[in-house]
Amino acid sequence: MPNRRYHIHVICADNDQLLVLDSLAIFFQARAFLTYDVSSKLSKASLYGRQCIDACDYAVMIIGDSYGTVQKNGVSQMHLSYLNAKAKTKPLFILVKNHYQESGLSRQLQEFIKSVTRQENQIYYYDTEDDIEPLMVQAYYKAVANHKVMGGWVRADEELIKLSRKSIIEKALDSAPTDIKADKDSGDDESFASDNVSQPIALLKSFDIQYSAQAYEGGNLTDVTRAMTLSWQEILDALMKIPSTFSSYGLQNTVNRLITEKAETDIKKDMPNVHAVARCQISQSDMNSLQRQLVSANWIQLMTYGTRVSQELWKLTFYAKNLSKLSTSPPRE
Question: How buried is 326 (Cβ within 10 angstroms: 0-12 exposed, 13-18 middle, 19+ buried)?
């Protein structure tokens, strides 16, 4: 498995080239974290796409049989994401489906393909999803070699992981109540022996995130974007309330609920006449960063991997559950 994994955003038309997208997911399963453009029918599709492109290390665009749903601004989400990626100067490689006859293509798609092929040099052509893996071997590694970025998630050295894990566990157990110490030898299939902690988190440490919300004041609605300070203890407490298995979207909703609990008081500091706050959302770049830190700290682990983010299932680790017990246990006499 590669030592470094990047965040790659996939620019695509809604409900097009699904087998190609599945092939991408399989190719990048051990190589990168993927996000995708979402349907333009969702009100926050453009915001989500822009935030993902802001946060990503590389972008790949799939141009197939569809231009995508045209938005009010006259362009599709695929076209808009492409323009955003160019504006942000993101390293971009493009897969274009071979169309041997243009009669079945929309005028907008034909013009978009011509515009892209005139401007870009990292373009790869395919006929079916079977062509994707060999193309990706060439395209992805060429992009990484030609456009080195500072981002990515680095896998820690396994020996350092083991030493870090052992040190943390020993310190935790030294101060743990007897019943928690006994859990270590309980025979649970999720024992401490399976825990890998590469970046431990201090529970009392705080960090800042950006969030958006809608504030209601005198019958008027105002979109606001603000910063909020959260502690890792608050995150851990929120995670303990989550179902035993959850999706990435479920994790994000949990964080959004935590933000919502604090947002009204936060916003009223500057807008004292606000009577309600709704639709609190952590920024996508901060959410991606938070999720990566939770994985590195061994608080959450992937159970099943799907071809889309919505199909991934996560669970809390045994380590996180015991850390929560330690943080909430009363001090011993």
Answer: middle
Contacts for 304-311 with beta carbons within 8 Å, 24 or more apart? Answer: 305/29, 306/25, 307/21, 307/22, 307/25, 307/26, 308/21, 308/25, 308/36, 309/34, 309/35, 309/36, 309/247, 309/248, 309/249, 310/247, 310/248, 310/249, 311/247
How large is the average pLDDT for residues 212-223? Answer: 83
Task: Enter the tokens of residue 228.
Answer: 């909020």
Q: Which three-class secondary structure state does DSSP give residue 85?
A: helix
H/E stretch holding 171: helix 158-174
Q: How far is CA 323 from CA 52, 163, 201, 297, in A?
A: 31, 18, 11, 11
Q: What is the pLDDT of residues 75-97, one digit of tens each?
A: 889 999 999 999 888 999 999 99
Residue 202 burial class via C-beta count within 10 angstroms: exposed 0-12, middle 13-18, buried 19 and up:
exposed
pLDDT at res. 97: 93
∠ Cα 104 110 111 (to 5°) = 155
> Where is pLDDT greater, at 101 or 226?
226
